[in-house]
Structures are given as C-alpha cells and as structure tokens.
Design a protein that fits this description.
SH3 type barrels, 129 residues, alpha+beta, 2 helices, 22% strand, elongated, five-stranded antiparallel beta sheet
C-alpha cells in the first residue's frame, strides 16, 4: 500500500524566490545605493578643497587650508598655529562668506539723547501708588 500523497507541482515554488529577489532589491535601493552616493559626494568634496577654503574636520575643528598634499591638508586653526590632517578627515567645506553690508550706525548725539529719556511707562511725575 502506497500512502504517500501525490506530488503536486504548482506556482508556489516561485513565490519564495520572488520575495528573496524583492528583499535584495529593496535593500539595494534603501541602503547600498544612497550610501555609495554619499561616499562619492564626500570624495568629490574632499578633492575639491583649495588653499584658502574654510573647513570643518570630522572632529569639529574649524580651520583654513594653508597647504595641500595628495594625502594631507594643513589647516591654520588660529593665527600662526597649523595642524596637519588627512584629507579624509575633512567633514565639510564652509561656503565663502560674502561681505555683510553694515547698516548705518546711529549718531553718537542721538544715542546720548536717548540715554537721557526714561524708558518704560511715561508718567507726569505724580506717584499713583
């Protein structure tokens, strides 16, 4: 007596394969591809650094590039103080600062006149309290 059930071939064997392929595709588009794009952007940014650029290192140090080598950059962190870093330590290049237009400063005579006038509620000198 043969008790084994007859083997059925159906489309169910294709479903796990499709789920596996879909999982890999999702992982590629959600993790691998954005990470490789960020890496390329960082490499381009680090390669585009020029002397005089203001940067922030990955450790948070602000400085101005004074010398560049193939593998290193030398930063001036304060007048006369330089540090040498690997190019890979560049975290961000700061945009060049545009000159800020200074608003007209008040005349000193106007400031002195304002200092003589009391601030707050104006009263006629009568104590109401």
């Amino acid at each position: 007596m043969n008790v084994a059930a007859p083997a059925e071939s159906g489309g169910n064997s294709l479903l796990p394969l499709l789920l596996l392929v879909g999982l890999f595709a999702l992982m590629y588009f959600m993790v691998i591809r954005p990470q490789s794009q960020r890496r390329k952007q960082m490499q381009q940014m680090q390669a585009s650094v020029d002397i005089g650029s203001e940067i922030i290192t990955i450790g948070g140090l602000y400085g101005t590039v004074v010398a560049i080598d193939d593998e290193t950059v030398t930063l001036e962190v304060s007048p006369g103080q330089t540090n040498k870093y690997a190019r890979a330590a560049i975290g961000k290049v700061l945009p060049a600062e545009e000159p800020v237009a200074v608003a007209d400063e008040p005349d000193l005579a106007d400031v002195a006149d304002d200092a003589d006038t009391p601030t707050g509620n104006k009263s006629d000198g009568v104590d109401k309290g």
